[in-house]
Design goal:
The chain is built from four helices and nine strands; from the N terminus they run βαββββαβββαβα. It has 174 residues and is of the alpha+beta class. The N and C termini lie far apart (38 Å).
Length: 174
């Protein structure tokens, strides 16, 4: 099983419709609409989540990424699953559950970058960029691409957030 890498950047936005029109203008095709429910589990290193789709399928995703604002490298592994509820039950029987993130996601593709327009339950609206890296490519190349796309979408640096949605939910609850 091999790991994949991308450069990620996430920003809180107040006007998702404005970003949507900019993303649609530069995207290769119309957006794909996804409903996702991510259950996060406590693990000794990185993050582990089960992503559930409305049809009952999903995927197990492990990843490691720094919690800092700005573009950052993420190394991840995904494993598809047909019965995600059983997978979640199995994991929750041996690992503590950190929480659940429910989101409505629109995905636009611009070159090799996935633009996610996320409406996250109990958090609000966000834009997440994922610049897919090749195996030998330097992270700095993807970081440059992510910054340029943020500029095109007219998202200010001040809107960029550091953590994962599960972290933001935990902080909001405090």
């Amino acid at each position: 099983m091999s790991s994949n890498r991308n450069i990620e950047i996430k920003a809180r936005v107040s006007d998702l419709a404005a970003v949507r029109s900019k993303a649609a203008a530069i995207a290769a095709s119309s957006a794909e609409i996804l409903e996702q429910r991510d259950t996060f589990f406590a693990v000794p290193r990185g993050r582990l989540k089960v992503r559930e789709f409305p049809d009952g399928s999903g995927e197990l995703i492990s990843y490691e990424r720094a919690n800092e604002p700005g573009p950052r490298e993420c190394v991840y592994v995904r494993f598809a699953c047909e019965n995600v509820r059983v997978l979640s039950q199995c994991l929750s029987s041996v690992l503590p559950t950190l929480g659940i993130v429910v989101k409505h996601r629109e995905v636009f593709l611009v070159g090799r970058t996935r633009i996610h327009l996320d409406q996250v339950e109990n958090l609000g609206s966000f834009v997440e960029l994922e610049v897919v890296l090749t195996e030998k490519e330097l992270a700095v190349d993807g970081e440059r691409e992510a910054r340029e796309l943020l500029r095109k979408l007219e998202i200010p640096q001040a809107a960029v957030v550091a953590g994962a949605y599960i972290d933001l939910l935990k902080d909001a609850a405090v």
